[in-house]
Amino acid sequence: MDGLTGEGVGTDPDQERQYCELCGEMENLMKCGRCRSSFYCSKDHQKQDWKKHKQVCKQAENNPLLPHTHTHTHTHTHAPSGQPNCRDNVKNEPKPLQEQQKSTTPSCTASEKSKLHVGTTQPSPSIKPVCGAEPEHTGDDISNGQTMSPHQKLATEYIGPCMNKHGICVVNNFLGEELGLGVLEEVCALYTSGEFTDGQLVSQRSDSIKDIRGDKITWIEGKEPGCEKIAVLMSRMDDIVRHCNGKLGNYRINGRTKAMVACYPGKGTGYVRHVDNPNGDGRCVTCIYYLNKDWNAKEHGGILRIFPDGKTQFADIEPLFDRLLFFWSDRRNPHEVQPAYATRYAITVWYFDADERARAKEKYLTGAVEKGGKVELNRSAEPSLMKKS
């Protein structure tokens, strides 16, 4: 991706891959004693991820020169409901974890204040979605004598200004019906194959997780078999952000996480109010793509409610099929997923600001040496780099 893989991008891929394979935590990591190339924050998470990791682990052990990969083969056998990550009858247990020096984590930084334009003087506590553009996918536009692609026009004339004004931006009909259905089909196949695990929290007791978040998740790099349409979605997200880069506040975006594919399996599951990046870990923009056909919020619930700038007003975003949502990831946008009573799918990618990401790494490493302390993340995110689209 032009302009996003240059200065400021980490040059050591092994360092960028130091995160827990299950929850994405980036601190207090230990290395797998068998393959010596995968990391976990605890023995419990290593065991939970063993079903997915064992083949890669064995390959790496048999061939020490083989580069570590996060690509797993997806099988389409139905997993027991509610237990997609169980390790039934696993004969080969993972080798013990080995202590590993930590590489990244955040520290508190002051965020630039940004207010959401309410657009009404009525005393209603609810705000309609602030934006809702529908991109045109055909034809080019001419600006200053240069041809603009549809994505460039959407990014520069709509998404950039909307984000800078409101901190939230909604784009409807982003991929189109055919491609959107293709992404949905791949996500459903992933879910039924047992690739999803319970959403994790950093530094939280396991018995409290379901009270805070009820989603099941998996992380996708885009190279996995059966994820070709998801890779196209990620590429188009990157294309939009590339055209916005330099126009989103003062951010200089140079990377992103993998895609977190999430499923709320109905039954009133949701996610309590939280902030994606409360402590300056580098994530500046949250980008969510929704996959829910014929969604009726009154019947199915599952609304993403954003409380911009800590005000009493809020913005309700319905998780409608082929809808793309952007918002600032920091404390300007606390948000919650209200209880969902039907299966609710979404794909989330977080984009990194180069300077904040570098400061987070430096401050964590300095603090770890001086204090031996632990800096906590509110929500995990696996690091990755944006590719040229």
From TrEMBL:
Domain MYND-type as annotated: residue spans: 20-57
Superkingdom assignment: Eukaryota
Cofactors, names only: L-ascorbate
GO molecular function: ferrous iron binding; hypoxia-inducible factor-proline dioxygenase activity; L-ascorbic acid binding; zinc ion binding
Gene: LOC108270809
Fe2OG dioxygenase domain segment(s): 255-353
Annotated spans, Disordered: 64-137
Keyword Oxidoreductase: yes
Chief localization: nucleus
Name of protein: hypoxia-inducible factor-proline dioxygenase
Gene Ontology, cellular component aspect: cytoplasm; nucleus
Lineage: Eukaryota, Metazoa, Chordata, Craniata, Vertebrata
InterPro entries: HIF_prolyl_hydroxylases (IPR051559), Oxoglu/Fe-dep_dioxygenase_dom (IPR005123), Pro_4_hyd_alph (IPR006620), Pro_4_hyd_alph_FE2OG_OXY (IPR044862), Znf_MYND (IPR002893)
Taxonomic source organism: Ictalurus punctatus (Channel catfish)
Compartments reported by the entry: Nucleus
Reactions catalysed: L-prolyl-[hypoxia-inducible factor alpha subunit] + 2-oxoglutarate + O2 = trans-4-hydroxy-L-prolyl-[hypoxia-inducible factor alpha subunit] + succinate + CO2
Gene3D superfamilies: 6.10.140.2220, q2cbj1_9rhob like domain
